[in-house]
Prior knowledge:
The chain is α+β, with helices and mostly antiparallel strands. It contains eight helices and 15 strands.
Amino acid sequence: MTILFNHQLIDRSQARIDIEDRGYQFGDGVYEVIRVYEGKTFCLPEHVERLQRSAREIGLKLPYDGQRLEELLLQLLHANRIHNGTIYLQASRGVAPRSHPFPKKPQAVIVAYTNEAERPYASLNNGIGAVITEDIRWLRCDIKSLNLLGAVLAKQYAAENGCEEAILHRDGRVTEGSSTNVFRVKDGTLYTHPANHLILHGINRAVTLELAQELQIPVKEESFTTDALFQSDEIFVTSTTMEISPVITVNGRKVGDGKPGKVTRQLQQAFEKRI
Ligand SMILES: Cc1ncc(COP(=O)(O)O)c(C=O)c1O
């Protein structure tokens, strides 16, 4: 498999990550996951822009501009002939003797590779189960940081409870999922947490809000309580890999009638057309 390593496309077997890479030691870096549908990237400029923003927010200088990065990622995609799948991309603050402050002359280390992966048809068609757990992450969830321990622990909790996703709350108010944005439908209105420092500003969240507008579904970007979540007519989560996945149970309790809802289906159909 070909990977992007800094400025070059090389074979994976030739790549070496230094033991003092700050991404490895501190999680000091940022990343993106980009969807590929039938050989074409979905929302590539938006992902590159978000990577640049995340990098800026942590004072990490990327070695090339957005246009060059897009070119390199497309070259990577073509080298691996991915049909349906994802591109994973990360930028760390590079290699330096282990010490918390930034190195004097940091040089970002960039790695990108591809995965062939089918769309998540079972989740899209049948829905998923979710469990609620406390959001123990830091207060800059808008940065797509390599530090994912909070998300890892939440997802593990979901897995141990036979669920696909953990829905996170802070003081009883739902923020997002461990790797998704959370939406609820009540009396025909769509609710989701505002795009502030407490959530990742999901690319598919933004696409979903655009689709809702096109479909004239009323939207409120407002946080809601876990109690309100239980009273929802419909719940779904969005992400690059999960697309728009209905949530049919929360903590083992049925959402609505326990089947994917009407508004969710409408948005899924509109999403299908978009891709
Ligand atoms: C915490 C979190 N929220 C939301 C999302 C969804 O973002 P996107 O739609 O850009 O994939 C992700 C994606 O990985 C995530 O990790």
